[in-house]
Amino acid sequence: MLASEVPLSERQHMLPHEGHIDGHNTGEVVHTTTTVIRKNVDGKEGDPDNKGKFISVIRPLLVELIGTCFFVLIGLFGVCSAGPGVVAAAFAFGLALMVFAASFGHISGVHFNPSVTLGVLLAGEVQPVMAVLYFVMQLLGGIAAGGIAKMLLRDGVYARCRGGATVLSTYVAFNHTLPDNNIVFYTEDTVKWWEGILIELLVTFVFITIILMVALDTKSKTGLAPVLIGFTLVACILAAGAFTGGSLNPARSLGPAIFANEWKDHYVYWVGPLAGAAIAGCFYRFIWAHSDRRIPRRIK
Predict the structure, then answer these.
(1) What residues have CB less than 8 Å from 163, skipping those under 6 apart?
(2) Mean pLDDT lowest for which of 35-39, 84-88, 233-237, 296-300?
(3) I need a labelling partner for 257 at 20 to 30 A (CA). Which of 17, 77, 205, 248 fits?
(4) Where are the transmembrane segments (predicted)?
(5) pTM, whole model, 2 decimals?
């Protein structure tokens, strides 16, 4: 069949309407019929935006791959900038996520983070196979971002910020004078591995919970979700940045670790965020969710 031909089964007849022939005053009524021709650009029946592997699989995966790369890269530039403390990093990551979520959220959900995908999976909003593919795309995007940062940043800048890698903080030694004039000496110390895991777990739990409530829940989801999610990420990085670097995201930590060769305590940035996301997803599914999404579902 030629591309211009339309099968008769696709011709939908609307209700006939009456009219008079111009130039005649015979009183004869002429019945005319309007034919609507439906063309399906995807070659399948139904709405083309909901059919086909490209729309349902490939396009979301491309958003997760390319989006994660740019999201992490923007954040790494913030980490390695001359901004004060973790402020530049927090706002670089948070504002980037806000804009990406508003622009591409309708395509993939803009997870850009295996922790987010795990939380959404446990909340019942994504299929397991698609979640695994999201994981792969996000990790590849994070690795690509780490490589681009290594290529673009000058050696001195890159070395100073360790390529944007997340590491547990070291507290410098200092003296503290008490009100009774006694002096307490504090030696150099570092954040312990279990402290790092708990800090990452807690902030990721908060972050994932907010995402599930404002973006997915039947009752509380809102059009302001991108703004709320972006500023939640800013707050979480500001809170945890001085202690762990505020990762909340294994994909964000993996790329810089590879290219800067910073592997010390790297497992903290997998265990903490993924555990926090798992707990948040379970809390949502069993406690926070509206009755139509909560387990057990309310039987009417």
Answers:
(1) 76, 80, 146, 149, 150, 153, 256, 259, 260, 262
(2) 35-39
(3) 205
(4) 57-79, 86-107, 127-145, 157-174, 194-216, 223-247, 267-288
(5) 0.81
